[in-house]
Write a structure and sequence with these properties.
Elements lengths: L9 H9 L7 H11 L4 E5 L5 H15 L9 E4 L3 H14 L7 E4 L5 H13 L3 E4 L1 H10 L9 E4 L2 H6 L3 H8 L7 E6 L4 H10 L4 E5 L8 E7 L5 H9 L7 E4 L3 H13 L4 E4 L5 H12 L5 E4 L14 E4 L6 H8 L9 E7 L4 H11 L4 E3 L11 H8 L19 H14 L8
Parallel strand pairs: 1-6, 1-7, 2-4, 2-5, 3-4, 5-6, 8-13, 8-14, 9-11, 9-12, 10-11, 12-13
Helix pairs in contact: 1-16, 2-3, 3-4, 6-8, 14-15
Length: 430
């Protein structure tokens, strides 16, 4: 389906046209019409499927068509992290280029200028507020904020927010909102806790589920069996001789992020660290440099596994195996975005065996096994994984025989229709 087949406003369609976005992704095709009809919606879709546009586009259209008070807050978008809030704000600028609405991003950090902008936006009634739960709650505790005009309440990465302990904060915010509002929830998974919250804050929601929690087929997934002491050497060899940048290495704990970054830099690998100890301006600069190709390798905790829009990451390496299969999906989902292909390599030590078996069972397949390079010595034996897993040597413990290497609005309507006839469409992936 093409965007101009949906009842979006001309102004929104013009912005999409300027950005060369023509064709809807599945989550956009199925979610946008339901939101435009005014229903509460629970949309379940994996990362990188275009879900941000799936709620921004109908929100901007509804704000144009609905009666609302221009001097009050009209919409609140909740996001679990500062990075995702910033990304949503950036996309709002692009999709809303031709519409007369203001937005403000509310998130933590020690940028005094940002604090002043946030306060002004809340008090003077920005049309759209994009906020992390904790920071919005802090502002509510300090200032008298008028929520009486809020018609739209959107929760992005709802499962992540609950995992991070934001349930009470969200419910406190909800109690301040008008009961007669449209509530929209996006989640990568649909556990019981999401359904319980939906029942508490939504009215007969429509449910949309798209390709739940499965990595795209465009990602070549690989694993290497090795000891913990061999992991750094494996990363060095994996990057050696490859002329690529924008590689992300995921590490379980921030202290290990710092240690690995220092080690890689001593090996003449251009690596930067990304973790929660960095100040907001430092995190912003690291991400800017990474997006612009000024940093080859980003070593990060799961703070960047969700909601970071970097479309041309060719390789993701899991230095530590995530304990939750969903975290694995979100990590490797940083590659193969926007119709690109990509690779994901996971370094699996015997200590990781029980977590890795859980991931392969969740994926319902055995991931391709790469041989350990001769320079690193012997790989662990199968029985070392079997003992550690406690489940025998099924699934992730069996060695494989495979050995593969690693404007004027109205004037654009005809142009949009003509363009569809003769060129390959491009989708607005998140």
């Amino acid at each position: 389906m093409f965007f101009d087949e949906l009842p979006l406003s001309d102004e929104v369609l013009d912005a999409l046209w300027d950005m060369h976005f023509d064709e809807c992704t599945p989550v956009q095709e199925h979610t946008i019409p339901v939101i435009l009809q005014g229903h509460d919606v629970i949309s379940c879709a994996q990362t990188g499927t275009g879900k941000t546009a799936a709620y921004i586009l109908p929100l901007l259209t509804n704000l144009q068509y609905d009666n609302h008070d221009p001097n009050k807050l009209n919409a609140i978008i909740m996001a679990p992290t500062r990075e995702l809030a910033q990304q949503i704000d950036q996309q709002m600028e692009g999709f809303g280029f031709y519409v007369p609405f203001s937005s403000v991003a509310i998130y933590g950090g020690k940028d005094n200028g940002a604090w002043g902008t946030q306060v002004t936006g809340l008090q003077k009634g920005a049309d759209i507020v994009i906020a992390t739960p904790g920071r919005l709650l802090s502002q509510m505790n300090i200032y008298d904020i008028d929520f009486s005009g809020v018609k739209y309440f959107i929760l992005d990465e709802a499962d992540r927010m609950l995992d991070m302990g934001f349930y009470d904060d969200i419910m406190t915010i909800v109690r301040k909102l008008p009961a007669d509002r449209q509530t929209i929830m996006f989640s990568a998974t649909m556990p019981d806790k999401i359904r319980r919250m939906a029942k508490a804050i939504m009215r007969q929601p429509k449910e949309v589920q798209i390709a739940v929690s499965r990595p795209p087929e465009t990602i070549r997934q690989m694993k290497v069996h090795l000891y913990e002491a061999q992991k750094t050497g494996m990363i060095q060899l994996a990057l050696q001789g490859k002329k690529m940048n924008k590689v992300i290495v995921f590490v379980g704990k921030k202290q290990r992020v710092k240690e690995l970054t220092r080690t890689l830099r001593t090996l003449k690998i251009d690596a930067r660290a990304m973790h929660s100890d960095l100040e907001q301006n430092e995190r912003d600069q690291v991400m800017l440099d990474f997006r612009n190709g000024k940093v080859d390798v980003l070593v990060a905790t799961d703070v960047v596994s969700r909601g970071i829009d970097v479309t041309d990451v060719p390789l993701v390496i899991n230095y530590d195996v995530p304990h939750d299969p969903e975290d694995y999906v979100h990590r490797i989902g940083r590659t193969a975005r926007a119709e690109n292909s990509g690779e994901a390599i996971t370094l699996v030590s015997p200590e990781d065996a029980k977590y890795w078996i859980r991931i392969e069972r969740f994926l319902k397949k055995e991931i391709e096994l790469l041989p350990i390079p001769d320079q690193l010595g012997q790989a662990p034996k199968d029985d070392e994984y079997a003992i550690r897993s406690g489940k025998g040597c099924s699934g992730g413990c069996r060695h494989s025989s495979r050995n593969r290497a690693a404007h004027p609005h109205k004037s654009k309507a005809k142009g949009r229709a003509a363009h569809r006839q003769g060129s390959k469409p491009r989708s607005a992936n998140n």
